Model the fold of this input.
Amino acid sequence: MPFKKLRPGDLEGVEKCPICGSKDLLQDDESGEIICASCGFVVKEKVESTGPEWRAFSKDEKDNRSRVGTPTSLGINDMGLSTVMDRSNRDATGKSISGANKATYYRLRMWDSRSKAHEPADRNLRQAFNELNRLVDKLSVPGSVSERAAYIYRKALEKGLVRGRSISAIMAASLYTACRSLEVPRTLKDIAAVSNIKRKDIAKSYRLIVKELDLKMPVADPVKSVSRIATRVGLSERTSRKALDIIKKAMQSGISAGKDPMGLAAAALYVACVVEGENKTQKDIAEAAGVTEVTIRNRYKGLKSALNLPKE
Amino acid sequence: MKPVFERRWSMIENMLKSEGIARQHLNSYNEFIRKGIQSIIDEIEEVDVETNFGNYKIKLGKIEIGRPRVTEHDGSENYIQPREARLRNLTYAAPLYLNMQIIDSDPSINRPFKSYIGNLPVMVKSDICVLHGLSEQELIDVGEDPNDPGGYFVINGSERIIIGLEDMSPNKILVSREKPGSAITFRAVVHSSIVGFRSKVDMFMKNDNAIYVRIPVMPTEIPYVVLMRALGVTKDSDIAQAVSSMDEIQDQMVPSLEKSEGVLSQQDAIMYIGNRIAHGQVDEIRIKRAEQLIDAYLLPHLGREPSKRLDKAMFLSEMASKLIQLKLGYVHQDDRDHYGNKVIKFAGEQLADIFRTSMRNLTRDMKYQLDRAGQKKGPSVVQAVIRPGIITDKVTNAIATGNWGRGRVGITQLLDRTNRLSTISHLRRIQSPLSRTQPNFEARELHGTQFGRICPTETPEGSNCGLVKNLALSAVISVSHDFSSIKEKIEKVMTENGYKVFFEGRLIGHTEDVDSASKKLRDMRRKGELPFDVSISVYYPTDSRGEKRLMVSANSGRVMRPLAIVQDGKPKLTDEHVERIERGEINWRDLLLDGVVELIDADEEENCLVAIDEYHISAETTHMEIYPPAMLGAVASIIPFPEYNQSPRNTYESAMAKQALGFSIANINQTLYVRQHMLEYPQKPMVTTKAVKLLNMDSAPTGFNAVVAVLSFEGYNIEDAIVMNRASIERGIGRSYFYRLYEAEAQQYLGGLKDKFEIPSPDSNVRGYKGEKYYRNLEGDGVAYANADLKGGDVVIARLSPPRFSEEYKGIEAHGLYLRDTSVTMRPSESGTVDSVVLTQSVEGNRLYKVRVRDHRIPELGDKFASRHGQKGVVGMIISPEDMPYTEDGVIPDIIINPHAFPSRMTVGQFLESIAGKAASLRGKEVDASPFEGEDVNSLQETLKRYGFSPTGKEVMYDGVTGKKLVAQVYVGVVYYQKLHHMVADKLHARARGQVQMLTRQPTEGRSRGGGLRFGEMERDCLVAYGASMVLKDRLLEESDKTTVYICSKCGLLAHYNAKTKKLECPQDGSDVKIVPVNVAYAFKLLLQEIMSLGIAPRVVIKEEV
Done:
């Protein structure tokens, strides 16, 4: 078992060695002691363990031996901190409650959940996060993105950006912003397709959010889009690796600046296809990437001149 | 003399080989895929959307299932194989697409469209699995063990199986007599089931001799006659006639008819029901609810449309009829434990259950959202509203946790990969839903009808005894068939009047002569005109006045077994058939087709007379056993000479064989299990059984052949300990590897911060830095290098996490910004060598490291070993070969076991195995010791004699230390020993000092956290009785949770230290009173505070120490 270095503030009331005054303390989990590293004095023994509770008397206890509950989430209107009434229709002794009372409890439960949203803002968040869950579900983006989206939406709501605009549009834009900022490749088109909101509206709201919240967006990296397009067209791993090489070189030469990353990724894949001899047309790739063939041709020209590639 | 059935083994062998060992699961799942899903969707049929701008409908059409795939974090979709799912912690699932069409007056939106509605976990090796139909070489190429039976799911990288669940047969009327003196006298119960849904109808007769019915949702019982009227049979005479035309039975209806309480018309009856389920609502709603109840919840297997009400009435009449016949003594009580009254629900049936609820949730969610969508409508709107997560999450979550909702937990289990046999056994396991806390004696007992279906020996001991069962080798589970074509066939044998004919729990007609009708149907089945797993049975009443019934069932989950048909006193199955199977010319299914063999379920077996072999066939015999030893399960079948053992010993061995270390899977380098053992030099048993070969256990053995002497040795083998030869261990006996997996994922946090795999530098401000030496085995990527030797506490994967912030930087914390060291370290009590390192990407797109550490386990004092006869023991001593006793030939035993292991346990099988093993070694060929037909002892003794050994198995031995001849001759032979996975290296533990629990400040519990050993109540009693008060205080206070509390001497309540005034003060009397320190157990202080939290003042009265 290792000695852990004890940092100030790790353990209340233990700051320094009472004998030599050194602040260099070590914690030994095996003996449960805190030792002064310079003089060897045992500052504290029988340190409390911080792991989950061990003893379990029943199966239920065993199942949740943790000291904490579910983590708070920004994606819930009250961050998941409120208490809810259980749906199980059983009283404290475990007997099921009578039929007549069931209706009462049903009503109580309904009012309890309604009363959770005190202010209009709460109600707004509720609706927005409902929408968010749906979008996240359809786009299968990681949880961190959904949290980020919720965070951005909350900020937007505070700033009053939602006023006069549709909740779902701002929510969709927030999600797009979150994807951009965490570099999870999802296009405006993707989001528009699942949210049933026009791409232009999302784009408009996105620009508004970035401007008003003063967000700095990382430049979209074409590398991240390669595997997405490649799997859609059904290209080999070899070809997509080649495409990654090409993009890397293109970025070094600086021709990628200011260009649509999707277009660049698509063009690189197309070049890779030609080099690796995989038979895919510009049209195939253009469709999968959601760009036009013209874009691919234009990017291709740039790549060709910059990287001395073979002819088309 | 060898039994005659021996040669027919190849028939059973062919059956299991061609069907596969996990056929039940695969069949069940495939059926769910083929028909179950679609029927659940057809049942929902359409979604009604009611918006403020008008209503429309969405019609649900055909379901389509794609290839198993995963959606990566970047949105790309990859097809996956089980291997990738296991390694990357993915879920092996396939997308479901549903065809839909909007039905609306606006024709522009009526075009059909298809939408992705969620993922369905794919059973490995099922029809939709990518491994389906691959050859052995192809399986090896995709990184699978070719011997893996499949039949499980891969959820988040772990293999989970849905245990077969024993259930009452659906749609069957079971009558029973209730306890005398209770309000209810007789009862008839039916579990009416359709795919994924079941509803129980409970009909009973009370003390007043009237019949009542209880149906789900309905809070109270309803008189039977009222229910009949609600179903449209209103006239008293019709009701009575429906029950029976016999006067004696009709007479019994009088009290029930009197109970109808003036409810005379159908409208009255429906209102009667409506008043009870929708009390206080308007009339229309009451009627609507009552009709809904009757159509949807009453006997749903007959149909859920109003047109089926008359059928339901007829079925209820039949229930009542059987109930009254029981009362009159015409029929006997039904036996709930009869295996004909049970079905087993495997993965498919249970998934149907969970899929049904999630599909309903999905459509409800769709409706909810579309109702609010306003004017927008059309395919794109509908598609936007579908949340695939509803199905995906619900189904995967259910399989991952085993939580099936409504209190049903533990439905799924982690697949047992201890050895191949344990995996096979796990896949053939059946659980009873009965509570294990209640006695349920009858349900736990072995029932006669389980012969050839359920293994009589393999069941756990203790609370689950008899409730958890295992399929016998000869068991075949029925699959369901297209009902309509079977029904047509049955109709051919029906007549206008006569006895009732039931098909699938439905009364479909009558026949004059049940016996000839059943014969005709059976002949049709033997000719292949009816499916083989249709059961045709005749129900005979106890009294001639009772009714005979012809029952035909074609449902899935009945346990059947193959029997040879006997005609005119001769079995149709001949040696020629068997020989042709052996030569591979025909398959066992061909025998079914030829009408030589048929599958019989427990109900039909009641109409059969089965001879054990050719010599026992009489005039009445209808069938002959094919291979009786196949009544044993997979595990029991590997026990050599089991018929010579006391029966519980075989049960113990069945449990232990599943703990034996061996060669668990062949694709060890393609899989990473959290814990895994591998025996280093596995040997196939020299005394073997036919099942060992069938189950391919020879290619994945679980033990080693040891020379065993039965002898006491210096007291080192008392109490079942075994003495081992050091030289044997050094030659490699019983060595194994233990693998443990350490896993770390670099998570991404809200602010865009990420975990990093990196060795923290000693001078950086990292919280939880462990000290340089713990990181020394790591390479630049922060992960231990392959073949690094790691000790307990060493870092395996170094990881740095950003500070915890929930939202944003809320001001810099008092002590500055710091990173946390969240490295994964070796378990404190384990050590080992890094075996393999895998870097991959999780679905969330995070880097995921998996490091497998291997530990070499050489047998040592305390390791557990067992023979195949329930004879277990731990190593008591390891002796150098020169000190071991030796035989005349100079043979030194590998293991010495104590003779006391035998008299009381009566494991004669082990003696026989010992002789057989010796003979096998001498002869250089395996001995067949299959159940009931092992090689004859005489022939084994003959072999021993031939090679110059005593036929008794005894030998003269000499003491290795003194060289003196031992007074008695010693029984020496070769016995197959298994190393069980309980090893001291995993259990050794002691504590002198250490951490304490946060809540009670008593020492922590458990080896993994360096816990103390509990000095419990009984130990305390010893010290109390002995009067050792100082020791007592030392154990229970000083070495435990001693604390100093401050008590106010005036009020006796807890005082505290005020840091501001630097004084002790009482919350009530301030700091001017006398406050005294008292030493108490922290638990006592806690008790005081807990009492105070209840609003009670616990006062500690202080007295001066004398």
